[in-house]
Amino acid sequence: MRIGYYPGCSLTSSAREYDESVRAVCEVLDLTLVEIPDWNCCGASSAHVASEELALSLRARNLALAEAAGLDEILAPCAACFSRLASASVELADNPQKCQAVSEVVGMPYSGGVKVLNMLAVLERFKDEIAAKTDQSFRHKVACYYGCLLVRPTKVAQFDRVEDPQSMDQIMAAAGAKPVRWSSKTECCGTGLSTITRTELVANLSGRIVADAAKREAVAIVTACPMCQTNLDMRRPEINQKLQEEHRIPVLYVTQALGLAMGIDPQRLGLHRNMVPVELPEPEPEVVTTDDDDED
Amino acid sequence: MSSISHHDRQTTSLANKIQEVTGVALQNCYQCGKCAAGCPVAGDMEMPSCQVLRLLQYESPDYDRRVLESESIWLCLSCDTCHSRCPQTINTPKVMYFLREEAVRQGLAHPKSKDAQAFHKAFLGSVARHGRLHEIGMLMNYKVRTGHLFQDMTLGSKLYQKGKLELLPHGVKDKAAVKKLFKRTTGNKE
To answer: What is the ipTM of this complex?
Structure first.
């Protein structure tokens, strides 16, 4: 199976381990990633400060390039890129007039047919394969953290339950993990403020999430967003200072966690690039159930 | 606080402009406060989202100005929690974005917004030049613009050791296409 691939800027540098682990896991799942030729930045949260038209055009050029390459579905692992590209895809779908106008700006035709998928939506399709490719020994308590952009705005994301999403929990459970129930799944880590301009507020918001995951005795936070990962992982010294506690819980990309469960070499998953060292304890004991037992 | 009479209302009120530009009708807000209840930064704002909307509903020049000068509009994370929970589906983050732009246009933007504005300029400058974001280049530009030269210096070297920073930009091949796109949509302001 093949799918279009939009890595986005952060996956080429500060979130390189996400790109590395996405590629490694997709290889195991026999999913061929076809990178969109000459893709450009999605504009993130900055483009529309200059102009709405600029924001739409930057996103639309990527969709037009995908269409020209014969790709009708593209995977954008970065939750922010996914949100931006999906908003353009939704805005342009079934709107020939807008497509025409944006095609002229971009200098390429676009008919409005490219669908944008986030990492979890793609992995969801492979739940059976994930279960088959793992030996179910990754029995770790994990806190599946979705953040904002995978589920909100609902019209753009069109994905999962907005208040208590389940997809990542199910994906991780398929790999043998034990997702904890917790209430910070979709709390904001503070990225909208930019982790650079308002570090103290980011530490406060991200700190609540880290503390909640630790309280639920999770051994790792699992995420599908480079912004969330950066705030919870790279800003850990500021978080710990704010909380006056020493939290060492690592923050893994969902593909890093799956990769570990699949037995992929940690080096290939970029685990050495995480700022908080990834050291998982012994997995939870295996629960042997017989047919008579009612599983919880 | 002065009392507001109908005579103070302006046809060019912010509420009117917001409806025109964003399509959001502020009169639909009936002040249930659910937006502020779920807002992760409500506690850091001098007035939370529901109060911003309430002030705008008066359509008074004084209140409009108070909103534009506030820091609150710059603290919005665009996390969309308010919007997804609003019983009237009012797109508050969209309103906040508009208010920021309007505050900058009118020269009323809160002093603490300067860093955020510098960040967006540095970000877009990088994308206009390379077609993709070059993180180090953008950060250097941001530091020069804001004077925060030594912020995160040790973090930067750690990231570099982890192979998380690219020294040289890896831009798009078709730079002319991206430049043209910028020119057509912004008049090459960036």
So the answer is: 0.89
Nearest by CB: A188 against B40, B132, B163: B40
Select from B132, B143, B167, B168 the residue whose CB has the most chain A CBs within 10 Å, as the one to mutate to test that interface.
B132
Q: Does B124 touch chain A (CB under 8 A)?
A: yes
User: Residue A176 is part of which domain span?
Assistant: 135-273
Residue B124 to residue A47, Cβ atoms within 8 A: yes
Which of A160, A173, A184 minimizes the C-alpha distance to A130?
A: A173
Going A59 to A64 to A65 to A69, the CA torsion angle's sign is positive
Task: List domains and CATH numbers for chain B.
Answer: 6-109 (1.10.1060.10), 112-186 (no CATH)
Residue pair A21/A259 in contact by the 8 Å Cβ criterion: yes
Each residue's pLDDT tens digit, B42-99: 999 999 999 999 999 999 999 999 999 999 999 999 999 999 999 999 999 999 999 9
Structural domain contains residue A261 = yes
| pLDDT, tens only, A86-113 | 999 999 998 999 999 999 999 999 999 9
* Residues from chain A contacting residue B91 (CB–CB below 8 Å): 153
